[in-house]
């Protein structure tokens, strides 16, 4: 994230004030230690990890105050949430555009997006409009969707586009989206609580803000042709901001992602796509769906932190994992199978291409309780570490809709699901493979910077895919660390004290010294190489596989100065190693 996130590092003893008691902490049984301090790497953290209270306090503590009788920012946190963002562009008390440029850009983007819609987007946005708000997210399950539909009794009465535009007043889906008494009823019930509770709606904020929908601001906004009669006949007080469909999409998608993190990024990408569909249809403006993401994410975190939901959350997680973990249908359609496309789309929809309107250098703020959103996706990290992940993966300040006081608008959950963006402090990661899932194996895809370093403990396997530049060095004590990029190990010394270093890149660099103890094992495929800028001391085991096509004399290890030898070698038959002061070669 750059120097602005590390320039204010103030070491302080972690206090219970921001080691939050998360309802999700008990989800994985032995994970109750999740809210405890990791004494090896997290006894001190940046003071910037502390939550910042808004005018209402913290959203997760006051979210149930979003009721119709609380109709002003002074009484309703779901309205006050937008005090520093949308309510600085628009004054609802006298219908004044207080930032005409931002609101004109907002309308222009609505015009551009609706006029550029493909037929496939028109069809999809129609179905998104008509279906139950929760049913809309099932497509994010991809190959797991058939099992989810079957075991929740999910259904919809909108499966195809009409031949002619719907008549005015046509109703939305009248079917129950899923059954709370089904085999996956606990998951259905949790989603219903997250999305359908009396306090989670956007009706009260909409009624206060009173911002006109884009198709009524300009006839250049091209409405969905199947919905033109429905939209033309909508009530005058059917307002734009914030988008209810988008709010529900993030409440549902993030809840399902919590229950089934194996599809975490795909589900939240579908959440963002629902918002985009609302813009495509002409129903909502980009600012309105960005607002829906903000309030939907805050509502989800509040629901998952609510002690009243603890037992249900645990049951829903266990049931979903048991039901879906081995239920892939490879023949099922998967609209979110391409990682790069998901990344591109989700990232664009965080800002919708708006230019910054404020200071872009403010430090990241992590809302109270937001770490619960990563509880099952990064289960081997403690609560403080997950806050640091959110802190180091957030988007820059200064963009429209990003700078609410608590920081909900700057969260980038897609990037956060890829692990740390920066090692502000030294991090110890302890993965227990016996727990399965991401505890057993995970890959961090971000380019990790920062002054801190990484220590890998536990029996699990952690892959580093990013072009890393962190400076604090790397130590492997147990389990496996997989270098999936030539610069995966960043800068600083590397110590293989135990466990395995496995190469999944051709020329992995160590920008410092290399030390391998007698308990460490280096795993290579012939053709891979470790290049060390400093001195290297070898020991322990070398495991080398697949010499097909490899010529005798290839260098597999190189250093400025080399000492020691691998004590144990597992090589293909007929091959051996030769050592010099600077390298190790594979010969036959």
TrEMBL record:
Provide the leader sequence positions: none
Query: What SMART domains does this protein map onto?
Result: acidPPc
What SUPFAM superfamilies does the record point to? Acid phosphatase/Vanadium-dependent haloperoxidase, Pectin lyase-like
Q: Where is the Phosphatidic acid phosphatase type 2/haloperoxidase domain?
A: 188-304
Question: Which Gene3D superfamilies did the record assign?
Answer: Phosphatidic acid phosphatase type 2/haloperoxidase
In terms of InterPro entries, this protein maps to:
Autotrns_rpt, PAP2/HPO, PAP2/HPO_sf, Pectin_lyase_fold/virulence
Keywords of the record, alphabetical order, are: Signal
Where does the record place a coiled coil? none
Per its UniProt record, what NCBIfam families does this chain match? Answer: autotrns_rpt
Q: What is this protein called?
A: Phospholipid phosphatase
Q: Which organism is it from?
A: Lentilactobacillus parakefiri
């Amino acid at each position: 994230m750059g120097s602005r996130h590390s320039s204010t590092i103030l070491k302080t003893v972690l206090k219970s004030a921001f080691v939050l008691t998360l309802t999700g902490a008990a989800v994985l049984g032995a994970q109750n230690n999740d809210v405890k301090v990791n004494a090896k790497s997290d006894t001190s953290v940046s003071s910037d990890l502390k939550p910042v209270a808004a005018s209402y306090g913290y959203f997760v503590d006051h979210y149930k105050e979003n009721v119709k009788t609380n109709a002003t920012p002074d009484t309703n946190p779901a309205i006050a949430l937008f005090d520093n963002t949308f309510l600085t562009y628009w004054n609802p008390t006298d219908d004044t555009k207080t930032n005409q440029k931002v609101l004109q850009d907002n309308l222009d983007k609505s015009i551009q997006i609706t006029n550029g819609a493909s037929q496939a987007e028109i069809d999809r946005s129609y179905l998104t409009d008509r279906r139950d708000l929760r049913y809309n997210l099932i497509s994010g399950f991809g190959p797991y969707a058939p099992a989810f539909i079957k075991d929740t009794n999910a259904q919809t009465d909108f499966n195809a586009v009409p031949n002619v535009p719907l008549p005015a007043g046509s109703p939305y889906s009248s079917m129950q989206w899923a059954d709370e008494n089904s085999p996956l009823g606990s998951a259905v019930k949790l989603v219903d609580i997250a999305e359908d509770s009396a306090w989670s709606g956007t009706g009260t904020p909409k009624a206060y803000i009173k911002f006109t929908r884009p198709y009524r601001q300009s006839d250049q906004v091209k409405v969905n042709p199947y919905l033109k009669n429905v939209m033309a006949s909508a009530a005058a007080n059917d307002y734009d901001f914030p988008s209810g469909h988008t709010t529900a999409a993030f409440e549902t998608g993030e809840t399902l992602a919590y229950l089934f993190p194996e599809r975490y990024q795909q589900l939240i990408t579908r959440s963002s796509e629902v918002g985009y569909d609302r813009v495509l249809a002409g129903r909502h403006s980009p600012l309105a769906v960005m607002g829906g993401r903000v309030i939907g994410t805050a509502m989800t975190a509040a629901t998952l932190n609510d002690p009243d939901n603890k037992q249900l959350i645990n049951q829903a997680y266990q049931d979903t994992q048991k039901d879906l973990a081995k239920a892939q249908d490879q023949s099922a359609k998967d609209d979110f199978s391409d990682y790069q496309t998901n990344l591109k789309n989700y990232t664009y929809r965080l800002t919708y291409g708006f230019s910054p309107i404020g200071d872009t250098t403010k430090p990241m703020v992590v809302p109270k309780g937001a770490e619960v959103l990563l509880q099952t996706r990064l289960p081997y990290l403690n609560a403080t570490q997950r806050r640091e992940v959110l802190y180091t993966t957030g988007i820059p300040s200064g963009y429209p809709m990003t700078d609410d006081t608590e920081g909900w608008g700057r969260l980038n959950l897609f990037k956060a699901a890829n692990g740390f963006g920066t090692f502000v402090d030294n991090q110890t990661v302890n993965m227990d493979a016996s727990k399965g899932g991401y505890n057993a194996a995970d890959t961090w895809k971000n380019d990790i910077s920062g002054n801190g370093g990484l220590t890998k403990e536990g029996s699990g396997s952690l892959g580093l895919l990013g072009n890393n530049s962190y400076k604090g060095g790397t130590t492997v004590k147990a389990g496996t660390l997989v270098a999936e990029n030539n610069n995966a190990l960043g800068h600083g010394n590397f110590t293989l004290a135990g466990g395995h270093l496995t190469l999944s890149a051709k020329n992995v660099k160590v920008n410092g010294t290399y030390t391998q103890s007698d308990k460490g094992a280096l795993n290579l495929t012939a053709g891979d190489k470790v290049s060390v800028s400093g001195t290297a001391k070898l020991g322990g085991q070398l495991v080398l596989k697949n010499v097909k096509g490899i010529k005798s004399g290839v260098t597999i290890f190189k250093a400025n100065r080399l000492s020691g030898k691998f004590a144990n070698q597992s090589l293909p038959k007929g091959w051996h190693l030769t050592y010099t002061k600077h390298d190790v070669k594979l010969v036959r």
